[in-house]
Amino acid sequence: xxxxxxxxxxxxxxxxxxxxxxxxxxxxxxxxxxxxxxxxxxxxxxxxxxxxxxxxxxxxxxxxxxxxxxxxxxxxxxxxxxxxxxxxxxxxxxxxxxxxxxxxxxxxxxxxxxxxxxxxxxxxxxxxxxxxxxxxxxxxxxxxxxxxxxxxxxxxxxxxxxxxxxxxxxxxxxxxxxxxxxxxxxxxxxxxxxxxxxxxxxxxxxxxxxxxxxxxxxxxxxxxxxxxxxxxxxxxxxxxxxxxxxxxxxxxxxxxxxxxxxxxxxxxxxxxxxxxxxxxxxxxxxxxxxxxxxxxxxxxxxxxxxxxxxxxxxxxxxxxxxxxxxxxxxxxxxxxxxxxxxxxxxxxxxxxxxxxxxxxxxxx
Length: 364
Known about the structure:
The chain is of the alpha/beta class. It has helices at residues 57-61, 172-179, 256-270, 272-275, 291-305, 322-337, and strands at residues 6-12, 45-50, 64-66, 86-91, 94-98, 104-107, 114-118, 149-156, 162-166, 197-204, 207-213, 240-246, 279-284, 311-313.
């Protein structure tokens, strides 16, 4: 299924039914009095968060959603029937905005959350409604009230605990496939990932977290270069960013340090709040580096980047060094989920395994 995370739709609630002017007409009852009923209420439009939906593809092609009008009132004290409401099921994480004013109407963050998008109009009053002791034959009625209509912009931001970012072909898809149940497309060319992928990482019984992988970023992404800038919004709700760096690029002229700096610069241009999120460095593809050079190369990269946070050295393809990384991520995510302050990574780094194993994480 094609991934769609933006859509513009028109919603219109139903109008209320008109009231009725009617009088009771029966043999031997010359003054039956008014019996015109009220009109029925128009249908409303509701949005419901559904965790079983993960894309806005349905709203890319069905742009008009209109509820029915209420029935008009009838004689013999009959009120018009109210129209049925319509419910639009949307993925959890959808933000609904008014397309004209830009006002955020609702953020659907929990499964089953229900919110009103357009209210149906109330039904009009029939002449039965205006009967009084002094006005026994009223001929007044009112039309139904119009239903609300508006143009809405839907924006999906996936809900994940951890977000992966990095240059194209840095190994993000390989990593998420190695640690989670996600099965993204993996190939040896850039921009293999064309849309975000979500994976659930199982650490232990009742211990898990969600990882989001977005298309790779390149320099100039904040101005529209590449694909990743279109999906950076999906990282804005994450608790932690994993910056994947290719420690063994195929092109000898490529400097991983310069690439890492370019990614950070693009984050700051796109959203300073996103750049301020906790970020860990993960050097990938260590299986392609001679064992005697791994520790020295990682330390040299960290020194040049002047990075003070947690640093890991892994091989996603060989699945080397992944367990310490997963355990450290879960500890960080669960700590923040409990509302505790984040530790200072300079004094409280994640646990490290024995240093004599190749591919183990290294700390600056």
